Amino acid sequence: MRNRKAIWLALPLAVALSLSACSSGGNSSSSPGPSEGASTSPSESASQNESTKPAENVTITVLNEGAVSIGVGKLDDLLPVRKKALLADEGQTPRVQESDFSWTAGNAVHPGVFSYFYQQIINDQLKSKNITVQVEDWGWGEPLIQKETAGFLAKNIPDIIVGETQMPGFALQGLLEPFPEDMASEIRETVAPAAWKPMEVDGKIYGFASQPGVNSLFWNKKLVKEAGIDPDQAPKDWDELLANIEKVTEAGKGKFYGGGVYAGPNAGGYLRYGPLLIINGGGFADASGQPAFNSDANLKVIELLRNMNKNHPAGLMVNQQEGPYFDAFKKQQTAYIIDGPWRAAESVSLGIEYGMSPIPLSEGGAPGNITIGAAFHSVPKDAKNKEAAFEYIRAMYSDEVQTLIADTGLRSTVKKAIAEAPDYQSKHPDMYLHYQAMNGNVQGLPTFSKEDSKVWQTFGDAVTKAIMTNGDIKGIMDEAQVKAEAIVK
């Protein structure tokens, strides 16, 4: 796909990196219902059957999302401070000017002011409803999960919490308030599934992400061309993808490799090669949420991963740390990679001419994906200001916020009407591809019923063994299945 215009050529890496996935562990799901005996909120019936009407002069507490954070405190106080800091920052490339704060819908947005406008739009919408937003920062990843878990236990929790892989698990435990029915219906009709489908349990929606990521296939056009492959043509299926990868490795003669997908035994790996399982009709869990590691569909994927592994420097594909794998692509040492949408902007920043396409399908496979880098916002059952909190989430999928996301071009809008407008594809071809990938069978990582981390580690260790050895893949995964079933029994 074509590169960005001049402003994107100067886009700093920090912007792209701030939007990348924050893998905190494989502990989320979208299939089984909440655990039996979960507590219910007194206002649950009203919140589901009546249109939410915010109270006057309400202050809601909202946890920070790093990609759009402008500080800690009241948004009213933070916005002028943020603007002043942006104007004074001489290190921003390109530097923010006063004119950059005159953005109007349909025009390019300076990447440095995106978070400012994002919060300003939400703040203005809520102020008109007499709602004040107080932002708190509980960190991200494991520290955030620990604090949220403690907050639930103490019944001292913000009005809106945020997170990635842990959020569907909270819904399953009955800790989150379901979205009001009118709101849920509107979201289903107007918003791409990746923004809410992983947070749907038993027909109710429990969370929303304003700019979620899903995986696509990227490739380095220069390296692909050196292997005699048409750099503008995406592989049509898994066989062609593997053949191209092998051609690049052969052409690289040890200087560069074909690559493929990160497959480390951690959430970063599961989030990247998980879509291959879904495409091929497999997955991490069955319909009842039980481990399903040794299915025939999964075995075919693991065989593909084993073959891809031969087209990497030794140990890179299953490295415990994901950073070195992505560094290899950034240093133009690997040609193909499956990753989230930030790979496009980051490649532009690094001067890498790249291609982007949906992940190719296996023979008989169907499109499928896993959310990655998706910051889901939810209202806890113990929140003090639920109606006002839902107004904040409504603002997140408003036309104003979603138009801003579309105009920034770092992630795709989730609003169907905006993404499917005639000029969106021509202005943002890569993000239009990403929008298409956000539709259909989009899932989150599952949560297992007992000792979740142990079950995941059993799976990850087995896949690593199957990739790194010549052992019988079926035998390795059968053994892992037995261990996993014993853990959750």
Automatic annotation (TrEMBL):
Q: Which PANTHER family match?
A: MALTOSE-BINDING PERIPLASMIC PROTEIN (PTHR30061), MALTOSE_MALTODEXTRIN-BINDING PERIPLASMIC PROTEIN (PTHR30061:SF50)
Q: Where is this region: Disordered?
A: 24-55
Report what the protein is called.
ABC transporter substrate-binding protein
Signal peptide residues are 1-21
- In this chain, composition skew of type Low complexity spans 24-47
Q: What is the lineage of its organism?
A: Bacteria, Bacillati, Bacillota, Bacilli, Bacillales
As for family, the record states: Belongs to the bacterial solute-binding protein 1 family.
Q: Does the keyword Transport apply?
A: yes
InterPro entries with a match to the protein in the record: SBP
Its keywords, alphabetically, are: Signal, Transport
Question: Does this UniProt record's set of keywords contain Transport?
Answer: yes
Query: Which domain of life does the UniProt lineage start with?
Result: Bacteria
Q: Which Pfam families match?
A: SBP_bac_1
Q: What species is this protein from?
A: Paenibacillus vini
